[in-house]
Amino acid sequence: MMMAASFDTEESFDDPSCLAPQPPGSISPARRHIKEVKETKITINCVTFPLPGEGTEQQLLKPDDWSYCDYFWTDRKDPQGATSVAGFEVLLQKQLKGKQMQKEMAEFIHERIKIEEEYAKNLSKLSQSPLALQEEGTLGEAWTQLKKSLHDEAEVHLKFSNKLHTEVEKPLLTFRGDNFKKDLKKYDHHIADLRKQLASRYTGVEKARKALADRQKDLEVKTQQLETKLSNKTEEDIKKARRKSTQAGDDLMRCVDLYNQTQCKWFEEMVTTSMELEKLEVERIEWIQQHLRQYTTLRHETDMFNQSMVEPVDQLLQNVDPSKDRALWVKENKSGEVRPVDMDL
């Protein structure tokens, strides 16, 4: 990670004045005179930040919202600490993870659909079983109704599986299709390009800073040589060196201005794009919430329908009467009412 104290002492890019940067080539009056000052800022990976405890405390752009636009400005080290990941990249990874979670939820619902379809198939098959088909009377009626309820329940579960497909699985699969990743890449490339421009501007500042230091040192050496008459340097040579030093200072201020303008542009785009990603995440969560609630609604409906299938069975079971069944069976199967008597001699 590249870290260097910034020579510039203007407010960092969160300063409101940053939103109206000076055009390239213009020179900030506050920086007409280059001089040694207390360092109040630090540059990390080409982005300038205020040092802790220096300047006024920065206010969050969206206080109390835990908004993306307030918490992803610095780069974050990976778990191993070997490399760093840009804050914006963390936001993009969150979007991709959300897309994957959405896909896995759809796969889960699909597995549930397969179970429901197989369950419905087995219930329907069982309802047609000839087992205990010859049971008679009130108990036979209850048994017949129980078997019928299996067939009806199979239909309910089959409808449930069909609705799960159309009202839950399909919406989860089709929400933000293949173009979504392409859109994320556009965001990624746009912000990455701005970071590259910022890095280039920062390199320009550092080169200009070194050039100024070299020119100032050269001027100082020539001035000392002239004063001590250790050289044949003339006043004209001193003036030339002073002009070069002044030009180097102007070049440095110009490079700093260009850097600040680029950083402002990156700042503005980071705020806008991170807010857009935040909006997308809210939409994703609300969409999944809506369709998972639909899942529970369909599940409750299935339970209610299944309950309605069982109620007739319950009623018939309550009406099972062994005495009545015996009477019915006797009437249909009796072989004679005359009882045996004693034999006479």
Description:
With 345 residues, the protein is mostly helical. Helices cover 66% and strands 4% of the residues. It contains 6 helices and 5 strands; from the N terminus they run E-E-E-H-E-E-H-H-H-H-H. It has helices at 68-71, 87-127, 137-174, 179-228, 235-318, 322-333; strands at residues 3-5, 41-44, 47-50, 76-77, 84-85. Strands 1-2-3 form a 3-stranded antiparallel β-sheet. A hairpin with a 2-residue loop joins strand 2 and strand 3 (47-50). Helix 2 (87-127) runs antiparallel to helix 4 (179-228) and helix 3 (137-174) runs antiparallel to helix 5. The chain is rod-shaped and about 175 Å long. The N and C termini lie far apart (127 Å). Residues 1-35 have low confidence and may be disordered.
Secondary-structure topology with pairs:
Elements: E1 3-5, E2 41-44, E3 47-50, H1 68-71, E4 76-77, E5 84-85, H2 87-127, H3 137-174, H4 179-228, H5 235-318, H6 322-333
Antiparallel strand pairs: 1-2, 2-3, 4-5
Helix pairs in contact: 2-3, 2-4, 2-5, 3-5, 4-5
